[in-house]
Amino acid sequence: MNSTTLTTIYILWLRQIKKYFRSKSRIIGSLGQPLLFLLVLGFGLGPIFEKGGGGDYILFLSPGIIAMSILFAAVFSGIEIIWDRRFGFLKETLVAPVSRTAVMIGRTLGGATTAFFQGSIVLLITFCVGFHTTIIGALLSLVVMFTIAVIFAALGTIFGSLMQDIQGFGLIVNLLVMPLFFLAGALFPLDTAPTAIRIVSDINPLTYGVDAMRHVLTGVTHFGLFTDALVLSGVVVLAIAVGAYLFSKIEA
């Protein structure tokens, strides 16, 4: 990469970061759903989970809730492409003498970083409700969290590149992300799930992100860390490649 490409990526990344931290209501509001899941499910279903021999439900649930917060924040970062298209900023960016791939990477990394920040806040909150892990586990989880964020920020870019209607984006993305979350083993063990759910979960990339998070934080795994890392790495490359291609096809 030459200096122009790196500068383009950095500027667009920084723009996303500044927009995120300037919107205090966005930061606070985005924590509502993870808190609801942690408190209601964690303490409501915890006794049932423990009676069934599943152990501490907060320990099981927390990695999935962290992944959920990253999923929603990362995918919905793609809506900013539609906003920028509507207000003319996207056109100015696309006609600039810079690589569209660099523009896409900068925007995607910006969305991924803001989603990573949000996931980090939720990680800290989980410690307040009884979750615990090792320092090494917490540090390794940051790597997994950023990988999940990049995958789904790129997915958000894909949808943002294909769509021009903000309401339609919200409906389609919600239709996608809710099944991704509920079928990722975030709320229940995949070992005891029906065969049909396990098959669908096996092709869900978030499943491997949740499993990797759970492994580094609690030591419990379904697929194994090597399989998780292999799948997540492949999906990162695929998502960025598809996102870059579709973004390059947007008409200025």
How can the largest sheet be summarized? none
String of helices and strands: HHHHHHHHHHHHH
Provide the helix percentage: over 70%
The unreliable regions are: none
Cα distance spanning the termini: 24 Å
Number of strands: 0
Based on Cα principal axes, name the global outline. Answer: elongated
Beta strand %: under 5%
**Rg, Cα atoms, Å:** 18 Å
- Per DSSP, the total helix count is 13
Oligomer: single chain
Structural class: mainly alpha
Number of domains: 1
**Mean model confidence by pLDDT:** 87
Fold and architecture overview:
- It is a single chain.
- The chain has 252 residues and is an all-alpha fold.
- It has one domain.
- The chain has 13 helices and no strands.
- It has helices at residues 3-22, 24-29, 32-44, 46-51, 57-76, 79-87, 89-94, 100-128, 135-162, 166-182, 195-202, 205-218, 225-248.
- It starts with a helix and ends with a helix.
Protein traits:
252 residues; mainly alpha; 13 helices; 0% strand
Can you describe this structure in just a few lines?
The protein is mostly helical and 252 residues long. It has 13 helices and no strands.
Compile the SSE list and pairings.
Layout lengths: L2 H20 L1 H6 L2 H13 L1 H6 L5 H20 L2 H9 L1 H6 L5 H29 L6 H28 L3 H17 L12 H8 L2 H14 L6 H24 L4
Helix pairs in contact: 1-8, 3-5, 5-8, 5-9, 5-10, 5-12, 6-9, 8-9, 8-13, 9-12, 9-13, 12-13
